[in-house]
Amino acid sequence: MKTIRQGVFETNSSSSHSLSIREGKWGQLELKPNDEEYIEVEPGQFGWEIKWYDDQLSKLRYLLTMVFMTEIDWEDRLKEDWIEKLEQTEGFRVLNTFVHRNSGYYLQVIGTNGDEYYIDHQSCGYESLLDFLCSYNTTIEEVILGNATIKTDNDNH
Predict the structure, then answer these.
(1) Closest of 107, 84, 85 to residue 96, by C-alpha
(2) Domain ranges across the chain
(3) What is the C-alpha to C-alpha distance for residues 123 and 154, in angstroms, rounded to an integer?
């Protein structure tokens, strides 16, 4: 993978995902806890659809999916205990700490089969969530609380 433009991750597939961060005032974390007082989050499917993700939950789901894709071995993603494996990663600990620091609640990963969650062709050549954040000189706070947008797209138009 080559970085062609700052803030865009390019792949050799027809998909491309970009992270755009605009200046402006940061908000407060607005995610609401469930009845057990956890903030539920499920990894997602981020492919080559044309979509802008600018709400906090979608951005958190994207980052969690990146942790899932980069910090868990392929074989472990398909096992029944994939949630436990995910919750043992450094990236999850960072996300969970961010959520707790900003809301007083902890994350609870929900989901079914691990093979349902992905970022298309990984759409990045990162080793971890922290590697991604460092390469774009940004923070979880700036991505989730700031004026950031994650865009998924493709070259078929």
Answers:
(1) 107
(2) 8-154
(3) 11
